[in-house]
Structure formats: C-alpha cells, structure tokens
Design a protein that fits this description.
4 strands, globular, alpha+beta
C-alpha cells in the first residue's frame, strides 16, 4: 500500500488535507505523480512545477512543499506539502 498525505497551509494553519492511497503495480514515481494529480483535482489546483529544490528535499525526506514559485497561477494559500506516509 502506498499512501501520500497532502496538506494545504496558510499562516501556519492547516486549511485542508487528504490522504491518497494507491494499491497499483506502478513504480514509486508514477504513484507519486498520480497521487499529486488526484490532490490537485480534489483541491481544484493547477499542477505544481517540480523545482530542483523540491526534488532534492523529496529524495531526502519523502516530503516537500510547493509554494507560489511552483504554481503558474496565483494561489490563495502559503504552501502545499506532500508527504509519503506509507510504502510497500
């Protein structure tokens, strides 16, 4: 079971969160991208752009934050954090 927890914050307060579960046979990378797509759909967001800093942070800690720099459109929150909480 693969689970990704996504949290939206503004002024250090949690606005929304969701957990995406994936039992498929895809690779870890495909599961992460698919889960992020589902999060963006649920939160009605455009897809964030992965910058080098996000990739490095995600590789080290299995979590990263997407701020205004990662989105093309203006966002109404401070950042979106994703965190892998369970893997096979």
């Amino acid at each position: 079971m693969f689970r990704l927890w996504a949290k939206m914050f503004k002024d250090n307060r949690l606005l929304r969160d969701t957990v995406i579960c994936d039992d498929g046979a895809d690779t870890r990378t495909h599961k992460i991208f698919h889960a992020l797509d589902q999060v963006c759909y649920q939160f009605d967001l455009g897809k964030p752009i992965w910058l080098d800093a996000n990739i490095q942070e995600f590789r080290r800690h299995d979590k990263t934050r997407f701020s205004q720099d990662n989105f093309i459109e203006t966002i109404s929150f401070d950042y979106l954090e994703i965190h892998v909480i369970e893997e096979d």
